[in-house]
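User: Predict the complex with phenylalanine.
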Amino acid sequence: MASGDSVHGMWSSRLMFILAAAGSAVGLGNIWRFPYLAGENGGGVFVVVYLLCIFLVGIPIMSGEILLGRSGRQSPISTMRDLTARSGAHPAWQLVGWMGALAGFMIISFYSVIAGWAISYIFQMGSGAFNGADAQYASSAFSAFTGDVVSVVGWHSLFMVLTIFIAARGVGRGLEVTVKYLMPALFFLLITLVVYSAVTSGHFMEGVAFMFSLNFDKFTWAGALSAMGQAFFTLSLGMGAIMAYGAYMPKSASILGTATTIALLDTSVALMSGLVIFPLVFANGLESSAGPGLMFITLPLAFGQMVGGQIFGVVFFVLVTFAAITSSISLLEPAVAWVVEKGGFSRAKGAILVGALAWFVGLGSAFSTNIWAGFTVLGGLTFFGLMDYVANNIMLPVGGVLIVLFAGWKLEQKTVDEQMAGDLRFLPVWRVLVRFVAPLAVSVIFVLTFV
Ligand code: PHE
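Assistant: Here is the predicted structure with phenylalanine placed in the model:
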């Protein structure tokens, strides 16, 4: 271990950091959540607000998180504690680390359940049940599956075990291998599916128009808030995941360049998923506003009609599952690293402890489509809906803004200069973005949504 390295291990290169951070960013957020939110919020206007948030808010915040992580080289909780002390800031800044760990638990609670759905679909596709199926069949299969508490809990549990297993192996061995081969595979399969959708659906341009034409009648501030929440969620920002990974980043790599690369990769996966799903939605007369089931109804239906679709379907859901694992590991990493630092546990024990707690909280979301489906708060949110709404639309943006405010205003100049040495040319622009643009944009959306 070179001096200045993290005790949790280090990425072997800048490329490895990019792959791991992209593995964190690319996940259910891109493939499952982005299309269904765009569908619910009127398409083009949602997509534009989302893209603006990625570039004006997301990239600056991501660089802020990497910067803090690499300066602290520990779990986000300990990093925030040390940096607060080092820069003489008010001790309350430490809460940023804690709030992030809490948001991580809230997110993993539903994330592991949806990932469990994806694992189950590997087997449902493999069984051939969808061969030649119609839209009616695909929708009722989805409701029947999510209505069955035993299966949903079972698959959720299996997903959690897989996550713990890889997280326990540690930063280098566990993640690097998973990310190096499976991320590119997912990318290529998505490209294939976009081509399939373009060639065979007969409704490709309708899908494109839905995603990219600006229909201001459909704009609402609640929709803008969802688009902003999605930008944070999809880039894994605001809760310390990227800060935790930044702690293992080699000192010399450029922060802004890296953040931009990750954001571009992530955004292209989301847009591709939309370009696969919406043409299929229109071709099959489905509802674009179908909600969380959108991907699970549309894609099996399409695979069922495709030559070789049974195999494609299996491969697709396998890759989605791995994309979800590389994200869920990063959701747990802030808490795991902290437990290892504080509790003196081995990584394996830390991962099991944190994973078990996350599994337990996840039961609430697993029950939300069956035995607890009737329990709702705040105008119809189930436990799952509540976790999703509060964590993504509120806690991540608040956490992210606090992170950039800290990086932009509080952190000692010396540390900033050192960390940003690879980005000197863009430093003035970056400073304006983190000090003013990102915090203001988030505040405006909050105020106009809630006031
Ligand atoms: N970015 C991940 C996805 O899109 C989810 C995630 C959110 C991961 C927050 C880590 C932190 O699937």
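The mean pLDDT is 90.
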